[in-house]
Amino acid sequence: MNTIRTFACTALLASLAACGGNDRSASSASTPSTPSATTAPSSTLGRIVEENMAEARKKLATENLSLNGKVLINTGKDGDTAIFGKDDGTLPKAEISPKGDLLIEGKTVATTPEQRAMLLQYRQHVIAVAEGGMEIGVQGADLAAKALGEAAKGLFSGKSEEEITQSIEAEAAGIKAAAAKLCERLPPMMEAQQKLAASLPEFKPYATMTKDDIDDCMKNSEGDGKHAAGLRSEVREEVRNAVRESVREEVRQVVRNDGAQEPDAKPAH
């Protein structure tokens, strides 16, 4: 389903943003907790996405964190994303190293021990949000594959389309709730961003997250009745499409089998 598949794509965007050139959000004065481990993906697609995300996590931990560009977080609403920051091409390239150095155009900005600690906290919070998005991406990819499998199995198990849809919706609701949790991280992130900007003038031009960003994320993740109805309709349509494709494939397989069993035609005399 399009909405579920978007989770994976957006999470990957979030991880690439934090790794290579798109960041923009801070965090609380306390060190953020590492996202809790989730159940291992059960589908081939989920495992492939998990492998890609594992590589992205390594980059997050070991590479410089860019302060130029935007951060995109899935909000659970029709695959929409909350966008934080501005893609201002006029600003010099700025990064935070794994050791807490602030680099502008490759040159290290002089900082006090306290400022370095704040830079490291900022970096850790951004990584925590990106990793949370990656977990959602893996879950979304796994659910997308499972949805197609459930639709195919439903043809032979006697499950109705409504039963299949309800099962998929229940799991999708859990993923949406996880996406909403990311929005809850944003107020303390902005607070830390503002503190860092007040302490370190060189960082200030890159601190562009606002309360409007947080409000938009919360609003989108909560959704409304109209959106919920639209999401249910989309899920049902995706199930129908999967069922139709499964039927077509079964018919094609029968035709192929019948053709393989037919004896070779004898030439006419």
UniProtKB/TrEMBL annotation:
Compositionally biased region (Low complexity): 25-43
Protein name: DUF2884 family protein
Domain of life: Bacteria
Region (Disordered): 23-43, 244-269
Signal peptide: 1-20
UniProt feature, compositional bias: Basic and acidic residues: 244-255
Alphabetical UniProt keywords: Signal
Magnesium as UniProt keyword: no
Signal keyword on record: yes
